[in-house]
Amino acid sequence: MRAIVFEELGGPEVLRVVDLPEPRPGPGEVSVDVAWVGVNFADILARSTGYRVEGLPFHLGLEVSGRVREVGADVTGFAPGDEVAAFMDGGGYAEVAVSPAATVFRIPEGVGLRAGATLPSVLPTAYALLHEVGRLREGDTVLVQGAAGGVGTVAGQLARMGGASAVYGVVSRLDKAEHALKSGYDQVFATATFDTDVLAATGGRGVDIALDPVGGETFRRTLAVLARFGRLASFGNSGSSEPWTIGPAETYPLAKSVAGFSILGMAAADPQRLREIAEKAFRTVTEGGVELPVSAEFALEDAAQAHRLVESRTSTGKLLLRV
């Protein structure tokens, strides 16, 4: 089967199309004939910095959609031909992928395989950040960094659906603002001025919930615009190699809270909880009208082009590879 691997860290040019043996599912696993692959920022970090790479060569890919090919021992509830979306810790950039059955999900009726490739990571991440970590309540104000990206596009819609009184977004380039404004955001601000813009929009109060995948200085500036009892949910460090630190001076005066979320961590440590969150998140598509943010697609062999587009910071929504 065709698959995409890299044998050294570096730019998109290190990605190679290779021929690998078709994987077979072991106990508790499901193999999938892949139709679409979701491209995630974690893939770019793996290729460029070795994020979560335990050895080389490394086979990329965290999420796919397709049809069940084979089920391993002890797996119930799936049969060959079922249309599914799957989340895995690598191995998705391929014609056949293997995933733990615990993180394989039936694609909701009417969604289809193409949109289904956005389900395993984007929707559960956005839902968990707002409802489990951020504890969204009616009337809360919400700020989302990366508002035009995959998670950001969904988070704006979910915040509005969840009763937020105002939803503010931050984008790396203002030409992305139009995309974000179509996804539930009231106002969209530039990275350079978002903190002063948020305070102006809220009359100096700040926001109740903030979601940050950037880290570094952006994390600190986001924390500074939380209102009293505000909650900041960190889910990445894409803009900085330095870990963030906080102390009493930043949290005590206004009783601010900071928490983190990793869907990879949850998939490994508590897949049943992830399944519960995913099922709630998927219902927002079938029952609530949330639109999945597919904005560009590439052939599997053109994965390097998809990576270049992500790294250019000009992309919006979700990028897919077509198998």
From TrEMBL:
PROSITE patterns per record: QOR_ZETA_CRYSTAL
Record keywords, A-Z: NADP, Oxidoreductase
Domain of life where this protein originates: Bacteria
SUPFAM superfamilies listed in its UniProt record: GroES-like, NAD(P)-binding Rossmann-fold domains
UniProt keyword Transit peptide present: no
The keyword Oxidoreductase belongs to this UniProt entry's keyword annotation: yes
Domain Enoyl reductase (ER): 10-321
InterPro entries in the cross-refs: ADH-like_N, ER, GroES-like_sf, NAD(P)-bd_dom_sf, Quin_OxRdtase/zeta-crystal_CS
Protein name in the entry: Zinc-binding dehydrogenase
Organism of this sequence: Actinacidiphila polyblastidii
